[in-house]
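Fold these two proteins, one after the other.
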Amino acid sequence: MLSFGIFDHLDDDGSPLGTFFDKRLRLVELIEWAGFYGFHLAEHHATPLGLAPSPSVFLSAAIQRTKRLRLGPLVYVLPLHHPLRVYEEICMLDHMSGGRLMLGVGRGGALLEHQRYGIDPTTAQALYHEAFAVLMRAFDSDVLDFEGKFFNYKDYLVQLKPLQRPHPPIWYGAPSADAVPWAAPRSINVVSLGPAARARAISDRYRAEWAALGRAPADLPMISITRHIVVADTDAEARRVAHDSYPRWRNAMDFLWRRSNTDFTLKDVYPADFAGLEALGNGIAGSPATVRDYVMRLQAETGINYLICQMVFGGMGAEQADRSIRLFAREVMPAFK
């Protein structure tokens, strides 16, 4: 069995900001109607790659538009947050959603954004680990005392607790299989990007670690990968939509690197055009049959049990995204139930 989710950078499509948010919230309603498991959104700052720099604000609106869909940040960039403030937002969102929040956490991949936010990139990893420790302590405690390098709290009264106990399911971007020994004992859901071989190494390691812990295969957390996916009635139409939409997203992706005259670190994952992305196996544009075959091969190659689809990006029109999602839900997803 393979489950499906949607990932969205909420990257600039050229619309007025209010119109942009309205279109994206309507899209979230469609994602729930179509039967996807979850909706994941990114956090970015000072770049057209992300127009929802406060994931909690967008999620609070999306929660009101949905009843069943699980939602969450992928990820909260913890070095840019006061950990107790984001803890309180997590608790609020979990209750407001009726226990549908997914909690993605990470250091953040674009350290150029940290720099512009006033955070020394060399401290980002340590900041992330300490902020994560504060979050976990708050979930477990009624009174929090914490003494660290960056954060110090004394007699903080933890008034809020999440609905999902001890906390909402945690999601983490696994850079390699070496992250699995930390993730598996904590039942953390993992997501990778890039080569299928990396996802296979993560998947195999996770299943082995899970079995060694004596846990049931049926309880295995989500092991996932992200892929750009465009579906249309024909291969030619899907490729045209993908070819026309991708450049605006790709330009937003490396915007800060170009502004800083710095070599883009993800160019091997996200090449300059969609044809290059397809050649790497990191995306697909095609008819339902073409996309269905691609997903079957991807699952066999990677061993994933959850595919996170990026189905609206760049210059893609709302009607095109709507059609793509409906076709995927109706003619691709049923093959994997």
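Now the second one:
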Amino acid sequence: MHTLANGIRIAYRFVGHTQIAHCGIMLDIGSRDELPGEEGLAHFWEHMAFKGTEKRKSHHIINRLETVGGELNAYTTKEKVCFHASVLDQHFERAIDVLADITFHSIFPDKQLELERNVILEEMSMYYDSPEDAIQDDFDEMLYPSHSLGNNILGTAETVRSFAKEDLESFIRRNLDTSRIIVSFVGPTPFNKVIRLVEKYLFDVGTASTERQRVKPTLYAPEIKTVSRPITQAQCAMGRPSFSLSDPRRLPFFMLVNLLGGPGMNSRFNMALREKYGFVYTIDASYTPYLDTGFLGIYFGTEPQQLERSIHLIHKELKKLRQQPLTTLQMHHTKEQLMGQLAMSEESNAGYMLMMAKSLLDSGKVDSLPEIFDEIRNVTPSHLMDLANEMFDEKEFSYLTFVPDKNAK
């Protein structure tokens, strides 16, 4: 770790067996920081950052890394905005130069504003036409009603059409805090060189702070909602609010959700709904923690006539975990599977670079795999059974279902 004079921190991990440098600038600013009428503004900023700076036009930004085989990208979440790049180590200076430029020196040209507005409206249409994506966004609104965490990251067509340059500048100025920015690096470049180049391109970023206070959502009440759409397959989202990032039950609950509907083909939901009955092609359960809350989400698609039966099977699996503690062998397999998945995810240097930045912003540290494994090994069947009884109460679940519109042609 190294901290610049302006408060921006550098997080560094040396990996000598690669020629690729992965770096990113992550800011603790996301869609939950938007005010009413600003929905979609953080995501709009992410797009507009590539459309022109004080010294580069948009095509110069695109070509700066592409011409040397590198990649430049960005993403927006509810609580973060990140600009990141991957290049051959010999071109690392190019990467940090362009990342610093688009993050801190974008000028949001009016002509590009209008072009990108149309691009984002097309992006919104694309997601609307993909019911498996749209249902997850709409489900957020049910879990966090009247709260910015429930807003679609893309915003609405109305808000996107309204954004002007001044809105972007005001949003950034209101939320920017240099002590909540991480420059993350994974690769073979020596630490001293990384520090020197980051200082070279970020020296002119003035110290900034914010008194922003994120408001915790409090209005949740279970809801059941069915929406008719021009689709052929029924889509279902079900779940409830859950534990925050700082909650000590976070890792055991993640283990429990991973057992139910994680990426393994042997997840309980996959075995019950796909392998035994053939009701679904995919089904997954996920746990997403935020600063002050979190949520459990279960998502699947099935034929309309199999919808109720699928929901029944899901509740059957949830009931098993509430009533039957895992055996010693089941507990062992659950732990080993999760530890293997986490170890494999750390093999991705690009993914580790992004995880390192997020972890530092969220908790002020990056836990090592041995530390995480020790915590996993200490989880007992009674821990998981207690969590299942606390979080798998069917009366606390909300349900959002997209069903085929019988009148659609």
